[in-house]
Specification:
Length: 348
């Protein structure tokens, strides 16, 4: 058995409610510095880990998170990868699931924990959920087995006692502390008096595989949500963007769309022009099965790819990373139809 040295954890603050304080004059929430943050959470000094902190300068609201910021965050993790055993990313909740999904694809073969968390109330509020989320995330990022191997070597979101695979997670609640859920994959751990890990659900530790960064993202992706009465002229206008490379269609039920010839023709034309179209369901839970009904089969027949049980956050960011890595249609097709980082369940 190896001796386990003191674990090293890097906390990266990107912005968000967890690091804000109310302005005494206006009442509006404003970011405060790292020194103030440490004052707010003195419990960090009692943890038996070497904890370092870095921050975006300036911090940003999560509504302003975008691919260039994902690259900045990924580069911070890569630069510190060999110096730390785990990472905690503090992030606003609104786009947290997008960032978690993006990092899971950008940091291929990651063998260390990246735990993303935040809060619904500022860290200094009396009833804040921020302290528990932060302290437990640090503990999970540092957790290892008796041989010193990390227990959770993947990108995750921790929130309200649940540890979830990042690219399986979506925000479901704007007010409650239970802000996130993973509908199509079980939680990886639950935190109560103890933290109980479901190790059979966690991606295996593969230190022999080198970390393979994918930092070039192509943002020429759009999302089209179908609804009863959707207009032909609106769809045709949206799909006529000259530089469009991929479309995510959020369809009904198991992947169904209205049987309108003009809609099928528009999608067929996209495929003919080399635009990749991926079908995911609007339902929170479940998967598209385009073979099941004629209304789904019509999409399959004009070149639409199945998104399986992907979340919208995962599907969009996966496309951005794939399109940033290759322009080969065959390679793009192959990558869309396999699970890269545990993001989808592929039918046998």
């Amino acid at each position: 058995m190896e001796n386990i040295s003191r674990r090293k954890v890097l906390i990266i603050y990107t912005g968000g409610t967890i690091g804000m304080v109310a302005n005494m004059n206006t009442g509006a929430l404003e970011n405060f510095g790292l020194n103030r943050f440490l004052e707010m959470v003195p419990e960090l000094n009692r943890m038996d880990y070497d904890i370092s902190l870095k921050a975006f300068d300036p911090p940003i609201d999560s509504s302003d998170m975008e691919p260039v910021r994902w690259r900045e965050l990924a580069e911070m993790i890569i630069e510190n990868y060999d110096l730390h055993d785990g990472f905690v990313v503090l992030h606003g909740t609104d786009t947290m699931a997008y960032t978690a999904s993006a990092l899971s694809f950008m940091l291929e073969n990651i063998a260390k924990p990246v735990i993303i968390t935040g809060s619904q109330l500022p860290i200094g509020a009396l009833r804040t959920d921020g302290k528990e989320n932060l302290l437990t995330s640090v503990e999970i990022a540092a957790a290892c087995d008796l041989s010193g191997r990390p227990i959770v070597p993947e990108v995750c979101i921790y929130f309200d006692s649940r540890l979830m695979r990042g690219n399986r997670t979506t925000k479901i609640n704007a007010e409650g502390f239970n802000a996130f859920r993973s509908f199509n994959y079980p939680s990886l751990a639950h935190a109560g008096i103890d933290i109980h890990y479901s190790t059979h659900l966690i991606r295996p530790y593969r230190p022999e595989l080198p970390l393979c960064p994918h930092l070039d993202l192509d943002d020429r992706v759009m999302v089209l949500t179908l609804f009863p009465g959707i207009r032909r002229d609106f769809i045709e206008a949206a799909l006529s963007a000259k530089e469009l490379r991929a479309v995510v269609i959020k369809t009904f039920g198991a992947g169904n769309a209205p049987q309108k010839p003009w809609l099928v023709d528009a999608i067929r034309e996209l495929s003919r022009c080399g635009v990749h179209v991926v079908n995911i369901t609007q339902c929170s839970e479940g998967s598209v099965e385009m073979h099941r009904y004629e209304t789904g089969l019509q999409l399959l027949n004009v070149g639409v790819e199945p998104g399986f049980d992907s979340t919208i956050e995962s599907c969009v960011t996966k496309l951005m990373v794939i399109l940033g890595a290759t322009q080969d249609p065959a390679e793009i097709h192959a990558l869309l139809n396999r699970s890269i980082a545990g993001e989808v369940t592929i039918p046998v």
